[in-house]
Amino acid sequence: MNLLSRSIPTQILIIEALFRRLNPNHRIHKDLREEYNRRKKGVAGEKQIDYYLEFLPPEQFYIFRGLRLICDNKAFQIDTLVISQKFVLLIEAKDISGKLYFDESYKQLVCINEDGDQQVMEDPLEQVKRQSRQFVKWMGLKLDVPIEYLVVLGDSRTYIDPRSGPKYKDYILHAHALEEKIQELACKNQKDIFQEETLRKLTSRILTCHNPLSIDPQKTYQYSSADIIKGIQCPECKKFGMERANQVWECPHCKATSRDAHKQAILDYLLLIKPTITNKECRDFLGIKSRKIAHRLLNSMNLQFTGTNKSRIYYKPKHG
Ligand SMILES: [Zn+2]
Q1: Which residues form the NERD domain (predicted)?
Q2: 250 CA → ligand 1 middle, Å
Q3: Cα(251) to centroid(ligand 1), Å
Q4: pLDDT (tens digit per residue) in 166-209
Q5: Domain coordinates in residue numbering, the chain
């Protein structure tokens, strides 16, 4: 059963909004492009894993994706957590391409990309082991729960050097081998560990304690509100400055019209400037004078809000 779905990482949404609204000559553009490509690749790898997890019998497995929990004031993330009555499985997704050599003695991963460049990184198996220790501690159960962990490569073309330490064979695999591997783990762990009630309590506690990362975009990406282009972007020619006429937005450059071009603009404000918006801030950002129209536009977005009339504050949606 799918209990927590993966949402588009906030960083991707922020970078896409920056691509729309940051002056193209801004110094951070190159770094943004690199980070964006890397994150998109990561998402594609996770999608591969999600695809193969769909084959598992939903009545036997509870699946949480993109989980973030806090234990002893420290946050830890689990790419994918699978729980059954018999065991717990943590999956760390890796989106590295090229050739990989896992060095057991030094607990490092040596990665050679298509251009022959070598990069050394932390052994992902150590990473997922650390997460499982944190998760066991977080659960705080007196039960002896079998904990399994895997590192799954999202890109099926990634080559694993067979000279890698032999222990990795059991833990590192490509996404297409995942379903079979989980069945194998189910055969290995046949005893019921969790009673239905304990399992129900645990899964609902996980959902309650899930604490998605919230980042300060201006600090993270090194821009200021003044760098952000205001106004409504034309969905056709991508220029800014659409104007309101007869309940639609019209582009003064290419004459295209749109009914809801303000939605992207308001979301961009919430992503890039700050996570709340008032009627006045909305008018200023969209370049409109009417309080009434701003009220209608904000209300049309079904955002959560607090306060009434002039003191009303609207909040950024949880995802995006
Ligand atoms: Zn236009």
Answers
A1: 41-158
A2: 8
A3: 5
A4: 889 999 999 999 999 999 999 999 999 999 999 999 999 999 99
A5: 2-209, 230-315
